[in-house]
Structures are given as C-alpha cells and as structure tokens.
Write a structure and sequence with these properties.
heterodimer; A: 3-stranded antiparallel beta sheet; 3 strands; about 70% helix; elongated; B: mainly alpha; 9 helices; PX_SNX4 (chain A); PX_dom_sf (chain A)
Amino acid sequence: RAHDNCLAKKMEITVSEAEKRTGRNAMNIQETYTAYLIETRWVMRAHSQSMWMLDSLWRRYSEFELLRNYLSVTYPHIVVPPLPEKRADFVWHKLSADNMDPDFVERRRIGLENFLLRVASHPVLCQDKIFYSFLTQLFFPFFQADSRLKALNATFRVKNPDKRFTELKHYSDELQSVISHLLRVRARVADRLYGVYKVHGNYGRVFSEWSAIEKEMGDGLQSAGHHMDVYAASIDDILEEEEHYADQLKEYLFYAEALRAVCRKHELMQYDLEMAAQDLTSKKQQCEELATGTVRTFSLKGMTSKLFGQETPEQREAKIKVLEEQIQEGEEQLKSKNLEGRDFVKSAWADIERFKEQKNHDLKEALISYAVMQISMCKKGIQVWTNAKECFSKM
Amino acid sequence: MPISPSSMINQYKFEDEPELRDLFITVDDPESHITAIETFITYRVVTKTSRGEFDSSEYEVRRRYQDFLWLKNKLEAAHPTLIIPPLPEKFIMKGMVERFSDEFIETRRKALHKFLNRIADHPTLTFNEDFKIFLTAQAWELSSHKKQGPGLLSRMGQTVRAVASSVRGGVKNRPETFTEMNDYMETFSQKINVLDKIAHRIYKEEREYFNEMKEYGPIHTLWSASEEDIADSLKGVASCIDKCCKATEKRMAGLSENLLPILHEYVLYSEILMGVLKRRDQIQGELDSKVDALANKKPEKDLFSEEIGKLEDKVECANNALKADWDRWKQNMQCDMRSTFTNVAENNLRYYEECLATWESFLASQTVDLHVEEDSEDKP
C-alpha cells in the first residue's frame, strides 16, 4: 500500500533482467559477478503534452548495498527496507548455495525489485535525491558510510531509554530468532518432502519392467507407473513456489535488523544526552565547590590542592568563569540534544507504527499464500492418486 | 478371546467362497516362556471346523515358531512340487528390531496367522495329516509325533542321492511350460525384491518427514506469543501443520500394516517358487538319468522299465500338481497385488483429503477476517 504522493505511484520501477559479467575489481583481480537491469518508466508532461519516458541502467548487488547504507545513515529514524540476502542461506539440499546459480539469481532479482519498490513507496525515503539518481543516473556518489555505521553497531549502557524502544528491541530479537528457526525447519521439511515424492518415482521403472511379464496385470501396472512418475515430478514446482514464501519471511527476518538499528540510534542519542547531562552536572558541582570553597565530593584536584597548596583567589575566579561559560554552552547543547531526542522519538515512532501495519498485512498475506500453496499441493496429490487407484483396481 | 467364524472371514479375502470354508484358524495371544535353557514365545492357535475327520469342532493349542517350521518342512517333503505358503523368517536383520519386541512379535503373529490360513485354503494341503495334527494335538502329543517318521539324516540322504543322480538334470527335457515359469519367476523375483526395497525406502522417507513436521507446527505457536494482530493466523497455521502431521502418521501406519508385509511375503514366495521349480527339475532328472542308464544296460530291461514307469508317473503327478498350483498362485498374487496397491492409493487419497480440508478451513477463516477488516476500514 503506497502513499499517494510517493514515487512508486508516479514511476514504474522494475528489475527486469540479470546478466553474468566479468570485470576487474579495485585490486585489479578478475572476478565474475551478476549485473541487474533497472528499468524505469514515467510520464513527463511538458507544453501540455505527455510523453512516456524510459530509462534503464545496470547495477550490481554491491551498489544496492551502498544505497542502503546511505539510506540507513541518512534516515536513522526510518525502518529502512532490507536487501535480499547476500549469500544463499537456509538452503535445503537440492538448492545450490552458489551465488551464480540461476534460481538464486532469479530470486535475488525479484528481491532487489521488491527493495526498490519498498523504498519508492515509503513516504519519506521516496523523496531522496540520491535514491532517484540511483534509479536513473549512471553517476552514483560513492558513499562511504563505514564510520557512521560502526557507531550504530556499538553497544553501551543507557540509564533511561524510552521503554517503547526497549520493548521494540526485545521484539526484534524474538522476531529474528523465531523466523530463523522457522526457516531452518522449513528447509528440512522441504528436503524430506522432496525425498518422499522422488522415491515414488522409482515405482515407474519397476512397474514397467514387471508389466512386461504379466498378461492381465500389465496394463494397470504400466499406467500406474506413469502416474507415479507424474507424482514424483510434481514436487519440483511445488517447492520452487515455496521458496518465494520463504523469501517473504526472510525479508522480515532482515527487517528485524532494521528495527534494531532504529532502536540503537535512539540508544546512541539517549546515551549522548545522558553523558552530556552528566558532564553538565559535574561541571555545575565543580563550579559550586570552587565558589563556596567546600568539597563535597572527592576529587583529585581537591586533594592535590590540599597537598600542594591552595590556589590564589584570582586563579579560582578564572576557573569559575571558564566553568560558567562551559555550563552555559552545556545547557544550550543539552536543550538542543533533548529536542533532537524528542523529535527522533516522535518521527521514529511514526515510522514504526507504519512498519507494524505493513508487517501485519504482509505476514498475514504470506500465511494465506502458504495455505493456498498447500491446498494446491493436496489437490494435485488427490488427482494423481485417484488416477493411480483406478489403474491399480484394473490390475 | 473367542472369535466368530464370520469375523474370521473378514480377516482376509480369498477367491474361494466363504460359505464353502469349513476350517477357521486364528493365531493370537503371544506368551513368553522362560526355562532354564531358553526363552521363547508361544502363540495360541484356535481352530473351528465342521469337518468329519476332526473329532471335535473346536481346538485350542499353543505352538512355538519351531512347530510352524516343522509343519512347513513336513508339507514340503510330502508335496515337493506344491507351493507351500511362506513362513516369517527366523531372524530379522534389518530394521534393528529386537528379537522379542512387541512390534516384532505382532508382525510375526500376523504372518503365522496368514501362513496357516493359506494352508487351510489350499485344496490339497488342507487335508494333509501333519497339518491336522499341528492344529489339534496337545504339546506332548505333537512332540512324540515329531520324533516319528524319517529322521533328519535320512531326509538328508534322500536329498543327496537326488542331487547326485540328477546333477544339472531335468533341465534338458524340461517341458516348455516350466521353462516359461522359470523365466517368469526369475524376472518376478528381481522385480518384487526391488519393490520391497522401494516400499521400505518410502516408509523411511515418510518417517523422516513426519519427524521434521513434528517440530514445524510448534514454531508458529511460539511466534504467535510475540505477535498481536497475526497471532490467530499463526496459531491457525500451527494447528493445520499439526493435523497434517497426524495424517502423515496414519499414512505411514497404512504402509507398514499393508504394503510392506505383502511385498515381503511375495519376496519369500519368489524364493519358494524357485525352490519348487528346482525340485520338479530334480524329479524329472531322476527319470532322465534312469532312462539314460537303461540305454546302456539292455539285459536288465524289465527291472528298469518298472522303475521307469514309476518315475514317469511321479514326474507326471509332480508336473500336474505344480501346474494347477501355479495357476492358483498367480490368481492369488494378482488379487493380492491389486488390493494392496489399491489400498496404498486409498491411503494416500485419505491423507491428501484430510490435509486439504484442514487448509481450506483455515483459509476460509482468514478471508472472513480480511473482509471484516476491510469493511471496518471503510467506516468513517
């Protein structure tokens, strides 16, 4: 469901093709990679005329990563849509874990298109100019986001985080853990289901060979064998469809990471704020102590001055003045940090609410599509075994 | 527990009309016996009959596996070219089934029950004297009867002489029919063994699938605990998966109760039939070698011709018995295969129909919710 004013409503975006390429990388080593074709289509209105504009350019996965890193750092209060997985994970035995595998490439193409559409339909992200140039212009500012990203990954103890963010962090941890577990078991179930179906394929040849020596049973055996072959072959399409369901779950597995990033940003800001407040408090205290001459708390300075002699009143006055300036600066900074913090919480929470609605809608639909797949699988099974039963009863 | 004759009819089908049956046998109630020397199991064998040759109309005896083996050997010796039904094997190597596990005992009991009933339904074997004694004699009577008759050594002697006299005999003058039977049995034996392996493989795969499915459903329930809006959907999926899991367990049970035992029996049957064909060849071989000997010893012609006459009769009897029994066996095999594989198909149909109903009802519940949601969104 896209916001009315967003890019997705004005522009058609597809990742329509994938191509294997070879080239030399930054270290002049030859490598093979896959490039994806981004095609965009929109209507341009000029001089009371409308024309369809078409644009296309090739990008590789690492460029998508650069775009996403940029968005994460620039919009830390937004739950930024995740990219499809870098390496094939949660595979069951038939699927290759190879990045060059055509099935993997195809699913990645779909995932990348989904990513672009998610960004294009986000009320805030869709307006970003860098995103626009990613879609339409070859020149893409090579954005180094490492240091800022590192900060987002650090952990530190915060005294008074907003409770809602703490809860959200727990939720995202649980979501990540439960979806990982589900995907792992699903892969194992798929593996076993594949085994059950494929073993039935062995019937076909034996029945055929056996039917050669039977007079009355021959026809029934032969045709039953054919149906067993159909049964065994049917699992390939069934499991391929299920991979798309797994991809839908994977997207939300990765979304959990995006949620955590927003929580961490809040923690970072809160930590910053608490440190600033702490610093201000201690400066105020120092100031008071200097002014009144009392030492309330132990300080090394206090001890050294006791041991090595007191300061002159002039020195003390100078110190107090410096501190007072710092305190004023500090109070202004604290005010603006507080404001920043509150703004962040407000806008982050708005996006989180949007995200929650999207997640509930998408996951519910995914579960429904899973049920539809199961129903289709059962119907196919009923058809095959009804046919087989007829053949067997004629033996 | 007394079993009525009519329920015995339902226990398994034969193309002989049930009303003509006058001998009903059940094997049940396995019991463990522990002596100083060994531990063994006995089974209760209950016979109900209206035949005149039987002094009573009802018998109840206890028999152990050794006794069944004795009966089979006696029948084979008395009717070398008849197809004696298969006995379950002495030991089971595969599947790591414990010698006296409940599963093993139950599988064996069912096979022993089938063994006796197949003999009872056989037009010739049913009137065998040893069979009657097996069904009716008390334990001590059976033991003393077993000790009579040609001992093991003399039986072995017969076999050795037969082998010595025929070597590869009986094959060159073998009637076309029996060559066809041999060719058929070679192929059938191959195919039935492969089928047996396939069926076991399918069972194993289904069991592995079942084991994974057991874990799959509960994860959705776990997930629903951290969700609000989609908790019901997740619980619904969990419940569907659990129901499908139970359905697959039923499907597995169907395989192990029906297809696997039948295929196993026919693997044993293929060995039995190869043996029967060999014995027919040996009998033919005895005749052939005597005929060849006659060609070299003209003066004792008269003595030989009487012996040859007897052997010719023997060969003709054996051939006719085998031909008739072969036709009967083929009919039964076709019937068994048809009903077993139809049953397999029905099992699978039932499985898919159950799963379909489960998922369809889940889907119905979800789409109702969606419509309700959409309606409430439109409201101002």
